[in-house]
Predict the 3D structure of the following.
Amino acid sequence: MSASLREVRYAFTDGIIDIFCVFDGEISEHDRESMSCVATEVLADFPDVTVQEHCLRIDMPDRIPNLLGHVAVFARKE
């Protein structure tokens, strides 16, 4: 897990699981590959849905918006 990873959340709508990975600072290729692996693991558990990962940059001290319908599964202590 990257030290720059601030939060991971998901939303499930109409057969699509969207995974949102929020980073502090530049998102490296390694970070993107790691999140792609996460999406692959989720897809292995839910083969009948579409899984999409989204890597977002929201630098500290900016707050991560709380979006309706999104469920946080990881949040670093800030």
